[in-house]
Amino acid sequence: MTAFMTMYNFTAIVSMFPTENGGRKTPVYDHYRPSFSFATVKQFSGEVSFPDLEEVKPGSTTNAVVKLLPSRNIRQHLKKGDPFTILEGNKIVGTGVIQTIQQEKHLPV
């Protein structure tokens, strides 16, 4: 049996929490690298790009492109409508909902 690492690229609507609700104090920019959680306690690393904006301020909602780094621990198949949380360490700083899966790859390890 071959083990695989799974990688996802998808578009999402992302909402950053306002500072007064535990969000960041400063904006985020293209190639922002938080962690993500998809209805599990496991966190996955990735990168967020914002095609329509130069910066996203706390309390804002926008469209984003998310690229998850390959991981052996992503066991579920992500799909449109799946919610996720955006984390910095153990602190939740935002949420999102997948709009479209652009690419799903299974890489042998």
What does this structure look like?
By secondary structure, the chain is mainly beta. It has a single domain, classed as Beta Barrel (Elongation Factor Tu (Ef-tu), domain 3). It has no helices and 8 strands. It has strands at residues 4-16, 28-29, 35-37, 44-49, 55-56, 61-68, 83-88, 91-108. The strands form 2 sheets. The chain has a 6-stranded antiparallel barrel with strand order 1-6-4-3-7-8. Strands 2-5 form a two-stranded antiparallel sheet. It is globular. The chain starts with a strand and ends with a strand. The model has no long low-confidence stretch (mean pLDDT 92).
Based on the model shown, name its key terms.
Elongation Factor Tu (Ef-tu), domain 3; 8 strands; mainly beta; 109 residues; globular; two-stranded antiparallel sheet; six-stranded antiparallel beta barrel
Write the layout of secondary structure elements.
Elements: E1 4-16, E2 28-29, E3 35-37, E4 44-49, E5 55-56, E6 61-68, E7 83-88, E8 91-108
Antiparallel strand pairs: 1-6, 1-8, 2-5, 3-4, 3-7, 4-6, 7-8
Please give a quick description of this structure.
By secondary structure, the protein is mainly β. Helix content is 0%, strand content 53%.
**Extended strand count:** 8
Corresponding CATH architecture = Beta Barrel
Largest sheet: 6 strands, antiparallel, barrel
Order of helices and strands: EEEEEEEE
Give the number of domains: 1
Query: How confident overall, as mean pLDDT?
Result: 92
For this structure, the CATH topology is Elongation Factor Tu (Ef-tu), domain 3
Helix content: under 10%
What structural class should be given to the helix and strand makeup? mainly beta
For the CA atoms, what is the radius of gyration? Answer: 14 Å
Query: In CATH, what is the class?
Result: Mainly Beta
